[in-house]
User: What shape does this take?
Amino acid sequence: MKILALVAGSILVFAILLDAFETIVLPRRVTRSFRFTALFYRFTWRPWAAMARFVRAPRRRESYLSYFGPLSLIVLLALWAFALIVGFALLQYGAGTQVHAASGSTGFGAVMYFSGSTFFTLGLGDVVPLSGASRGLAVLESGVGFGFLAMVIGYLPVIYSSFSRREVEISLLDARAGSPPSAQEFLSRMAGAHNQPLLDRFLHQWEHWAAEVLESHISYPVLALFRSQHINQSWLGALTTILDVSALTIVGIDGVPSNQARLTFAMARHAVVDLAQVVGAQYEVNVADRLPPAALANLRHALTANGLQLRAGEEADRKLLVLRSMYEPYVQALADRLLLRLPEWSSLAKVKDNWRSSPWDKLIPKQDGSVPVAVVEEHF
Assistant: This one.
């Protein structure tokens, strides 16, 4: 029995330390299928997402889903700590540990309590080791516990720093592509600026953003589960919009060079392909077409109305279809896996940008000589 406890404790401690190292320290994707963290997210996200499907109100559903990322992170860290305490308790028990407890109990419960107090370096002294093996394991566990707590303290700021950098660019997209964003709205607003270097600079900026998202979400996959602050924004929606814009620019818009768009498309496509594998997204055959022929005709008409001539013809349509096939299956799989909404190619309805909306707008008194908010927005 004690040999079995010794083997089980060794395996448990090693497995948890390896899992924590791969999750927190190792800056690359681990492809091994059997991992504690992977199993944890597989068996917690599915029921959480299933419950979210019963919430009809979009705002409440997003609020409910937004709790999962931070909460799962806290629960995972607590499970790691608990597993390490159990593992060291099994090692103590399997090594024939002799402890002296003030209560007089020397069973496995006392060993568990001793392991917990040692792991968190409490130093209460009501349970003390008597043998050399017990003292050695206690020193080892206290060192592991101290290092674990230090790693957690350093881990959380890194996670939230990466999240903050991601959200800054998503917020900047609001005034450029609408809320929610769309490729047609983005190109129409850029056309109104009559500034080609501005478009290239913006696409260059988003090429770097896609690279940062890829790096941070591979190093810390839990970030993919962190929702944006507004229900009509998401990292996947922003990434898809940039891919849509790049694809249209590559197909051909009169007077708009496509060099930077090709680079941005390559980086953003790389990001969605790798991240689909990271989160375990599954390819779906029967999905709705995001840009059927009628919608493509409406998109061309809307762009023409804003002074942009999108290349037409069978060859242009085929090229756009090929470009879409390179990323749409992945973004659709990611959206289905993470319960995120993909943006439309064209704005179906005129919706205020997030920066224009405020609950105070309705409370502004309309006194003589005042300018209504709607008029200000109309001439902005």
Summary: Residues 178-356 form one domain. The chain has 14 helices and two strands. Residues 98 and 131 are 6 Å apart (CA to CA).
